[in-house]
Each structure stands twice: as structure tokens, then as C-alpha cells.
Amino acid sequence: MESSKGRPVWRGEVKQVGTITVTDDTTGKTVKLPLLEGETGPRAIDVRKLYAETGYFTFDPGFTSTASCESAITYIDGDEGILLHRGYAIQDLAENCDYLEVCHLLLRGELPNPQQKEEFERTITYHTMVHEQLSRFYSGFRRDAHPMAVMCGVTGALSAFYHDSTDILDPRQRMIAAHRLIAKMPTMAAMAYKYSVGQPFMYPRNDLSYAENFLYMTFGTPCETWKVDPVLARAMDKIFILHADHEQNASTSTVRLAGSSHANPFACIASGIAALWGPAHGGANEAVLLMLEEIGSVERIPEFIKRAKDKNDPFRLMGFGHRVYKNYDPRAKIMRQTCYEVLDVLGIKDEPHLAIAMELEKIALEDPYFVEKKLYPNVDFYSGIILKAMGFPTSMFTVLFALARTVGWISQWQEMIEDPQQKIGRPRQLYTGNPGRPFVPLNKRG
Ligand code: CMC
User: Fold this and answer.
1) Would the CB of 300 count as within 6 Å of ligand 1?
2) Cβ distance 281 to 408 under 8 Å?
3) Cα 232 from chain centre
4) For this structure, is 262 an active site residue?
5) By CB neighbour count within 10 A (0-12 exposed, 13-18 middle, 19+ buried), where does 6 fall?
């Protein structure tokens, strides 16, 4: 793959650094497996030929010890709380770039120079309108439909409109599909909001930045000239950056798996949106705010901490814990700072949810249960407070996550399609059903 500067995207190599020998203690049979090393991060045992050579599978439900692909896009060191996109620290990107620069970085492998930035912005801006017929889809939904349900539907429906970018074997069509998805997602998300409140859809404006345009399409109305507060637009942009990509999480893996069958990109992204919706993943930002509302006051925090620690109670502290981070999620730190800035510019003092969140964080970070299990606040812990302050209803929180993650999904999808090792994803299982029995005719079944 080439960056838009015409030189290859920086991509390190996976090297074999040795072998590892596995012995079956029941038979004494041994097998030597290659030991692989990427640019950085843990080594991996290459089990690709294991079944063919030994007849054994590996067993890893939840993929806690499995690398599913090679990727040069995002790196996470969960113990140190490090997140890099194409080698750049998330803190540097959030501080110094806008979201579209980060999109360029993820999708094309490099940060854009000024000319490339202008070109990329223009390309995205000129794809923001959706086919007029697509707007009819919205009226098929109930007004009280969850906007994530609407987003799953309309994103999947894009494949019915943009046939000229569904040939996944054509690099140009792949790139056009990527541009369309990044560009149209804010329009479709804002339309989902407008539909839910019964207001007219707002067409995108080409004179506004990506984040400004989204805020305008969401909160503007045709009746008045709507001014976007630059601090809020910057905060929105930063929230998009913080959600742009996160390695092989559940929704990204879903996109890759769907894409591995050569499904079209719009269908793949719709599958990612569906996976993101769950409260253990992107749905957590909505769940955090609902939890803070349920807690209601600082005095009730100990009761909820107790419940979170109780094995017999399904309640979990939403916005806490992460499969990979066993340290403070670096995105959560930036999000907390952004939260203060937004509340400040909006003149919101003594925000009750913020007070509960801060106290909850303090107590949880000192509690042995959370300390021992290395459960820290994640990206979703503070984002809901910011989004609520900006005027978004809770049901829109995960939609904003989906909007911002679209670039990550499509970049990972593209990387997968370009990977010569790409195969259809097809895991196996440890079968626990009946091993085989004689058929019983209906009249003989008791
Ligand atoms: N509250 C209470 N206990 C928890 C929590 C929590 N939020 N998270 C994990 N634990 C406990 C869990 O009960 C388990 O205990 P034990 O070992 O005694 O059985 C231990 O910590 C390990 O948890 P796990 O569920 O095995 O870990 P996982 O890696 O499978 O799950 C997680 C990660 C994010 C799903 C989980 O921490 C969780 O459900 N958190 C709350 C939901 C949330 O905030 N999700 C957003 C994740 S970040 C944004 C994103 O990527 O989407």
C-alpha cells in the first residue's frame, strides 16, 4: 500500500525469532512451533499449521491470548497505558491534530502535509451529502427507535446506493467507500437525532469543519443562523480523535470477520456498529450516564461499589475496566480534562454527575478489589458527561462513538483486504454436543 505521498506506508516486519516446543503429556508427542515477533509488543506462537501437523486446535474463547492478524495501524501497551496510532502517541494527536488529520493517518498511513490536508478535507467535505432517497429510510422507523438501531439499518443500506464502491478488489473503489463512510456518518448520525426529535433534517455545509458541521446538522434548525462555539467544536473533534481506532476490539474484529468473506464495506461497517452497541463495548458510554443517574448522589456510592464487587450481582461499574488496559486508559485522562473545559465554557458549575463520577473514581482507585484486578476508568467514563453537557441525549452517545470509530474500522478493513495472508475467518470449536446417535422416528419419540 502507498501513502498519498506516493511512498509505501511505514510497515515493520514480523520476524521468526525462534521456536517453541509443545509436548502432549498424555502421549509424549512434541511439536515445534515458530515464535514470532512484531515491531514491539508480546511475542506470538504461530499455530497456523498446528491442526494440519498434529490434529489439535487451540482453545481461546474471548481471544484473551490470540493475535488474529498482523496490523501496522494501532498499538496498545495495556500495562503502561500507551496508545499509538501509526507510531504517534494519542496525547500528541489529540493535542495537535484535528480529526481529519488523524483519519488521514489511520487510512493512508501518514499525517498529511498542508496540501494533502486540504485535498483530504475537500474530498471528505464533498461526500457528506447522502442520497436523497436514503432519507426516506428514516421515516420507516418509529420516532422512539434507538438511534443505534437506525444507524445499523441506514449504514447497511448504503450498499444499496453506492454500487460503484462495492467492488472490494478494486483499490480505488475501496478508497471511495472509505471516504464516503467517513463523510456520511456524521450526516446520518445527525439525521437519526433529528428524526427522533421530529425536526427537519439539516443538509451538510461545506464551509464548516467536520466537527462543526456535525454539531450544526445536529443542533441547527432552518429557522435561525446557528453559531458553533469553537471550544465545543474543538471538544467534539477531540472526542472523535479519542475514539478513532483501538486495535482489534470486538467491533473491529467483527468488521474484519465480516470483511473476510468479501462482504461489501458498507455491510461490514454496519456489522461493526451492531457489535459496538453492546454495553460491554461502545454502549458503555450510555450505560455510564444511566449508572450515574441511578446512583444519584455521592452518599450512595458505597452501596454501588459493594454491588459491583458482589459476584452474585450482575452490576458492574460501567466505564471501568478494560481487556487490554491494566493501567489508566490514556484516553480517559484526556477525556477528563476535556470534560472540565466543556463544563467551564458552558458555565456549568457543580454538575451532579461529574461530582459523583469523580468521587466514584477516587473510591474505586483506592478499593482493594479494583486495585487488585487493575480496573481503571476507561474512555467511556467521562465522555457521557461531556456529551450530555453539550446537549446530546444519552441514546446518541454510542452513535457518536460509532461515527468516530468508522475510520478505524474502514482502515482495518482495508488493511485486511490488502494483506496477502488474508483468508476467510473461520474459527473451530470444542464440541460438547451429542457425539452421534440413531435417528428416532416421530411416532417412537416419548
Ligand atoms: N466492575 C466490577 N468488576 C469488574 C468490572 C467492572 N466494571 N470489570 C471487570 N470486573 C471484574 C470481573 O468481574 C472479573 O472478576 P473475576 O476475575 O473475579 O471474575 C475481573 O474484573 C476481570 O473481568 P473480565 O470481565 O474477565 O474482563 P474482560 O477483559 O473480559 O472485560 C470489560 C473487560 C471492559 C468488558 C469489563 O471490564 C467491563 O464489563 N467493564 C464495564 C463496561 C465498560 O466500561 N466497557 C467499556 C470498555 S472501554 C470502551 C470500549 O473499548 O468499548
Assistant:
1) no
2) no
3) 22
4) no
5) exposed
The answer to whether residues 103 and 74 belong to one domain is no
Instruction: Pick the residue whose CA is nearest to atom 4 on ligand 1.
Output: 316
Q: Name the helix (H) or strand (E) containing 334.
A: helix 330-345
d(CA 261, CA 99): 30
User: Residue 276 falls within a domain, yes or no?
Assistant: yes
Q: How many domains does the chain have?
A: 2
Q: Given the CA of residue 321, which atom of ligand 1 is nearest to it? A: 37
Same domain? For 289 and 329 the reply is yes
30 lies in the same domain as 159: no
C-alpha cell at 119: 485535498
> Does 432 reside within a domain?
no
Calculate the alpha carbon distances from 252 to 68, 148, 411 in Å. 11, 17, 10
Alpha-carbon span 251 to 231, nearest angstrom: 30
Cβ–ligand 1 distance for 375 under 6 Å, the answer: yes
Question: Mean pLDDT for the chain?
Answer: 95
pLDDT tens profile 205-231: 999 999 999 999 999 999 988 888 898
Domain of residue 362 covers 98-419
Taking CA atoms only, the protein residue closest to ligand 1 atom 9 is 321
Residue whose CB lies within 8 A of the most ligand 1 atoms, among 375, 376, 399, for a mutation test: 375
**Which CATH number characterizes residue 52's domain?**
2.20.28.60
How far away, in angstroms, is 366 Cα from ligand 1 center?
17
Q: State pLDDT tens for residues 81-120.
A: 999 999 999 999 999 999 999 999 999 999 999 999 999 9
pTM of the model: 0.94
Same-domain status, 60 and 148: no
Separation of 82 CA from ligand 1 center, angstroms?
Answer: 19
Residue 380 among the catalytic residues? yes
In ligand 1, which atom is closest to the CA atom of 281?
A: 52
Question: What 3-state class would DSSP assign to 227?
Answer: coil
